Amino acid sequence: MKAMNEDLLELVRQHGTPLCILDHNVIRANYRMFKKTLPRIQCYYAVKANSTQQIVETLFKEGSSFDVASYNEFMQVYQYIRHFEKKDKKYFVWDKIIFSNTIKDRHTLSKIKQYKPLVTYDNSAEVRKIKEYCDTAGLVLRVKVPDTGSQVEMSTKFGAEPGDAANLIQEAFDAGLKVEGISFHVGSQCTNFDNYTAALAITSEIFHDARNKGFGLNLVDIGGGFPVPYDAQVPKFEELGALLNSEFTRLFPDDIEVLAEPGRFMVATAAVLISEIIGKARRNGKMFYHLNDGVYQTFSGVVYDHWIPNFSAFKKGENEICAVVGPTCDSFDKITLSAELPGNLDVGDFLLTENIGAYSTASSTTFNGFEGAKIIHRNFQAQSD
Question: Is 43 annotated as catalytic?
Answer without folding.
Answer: no
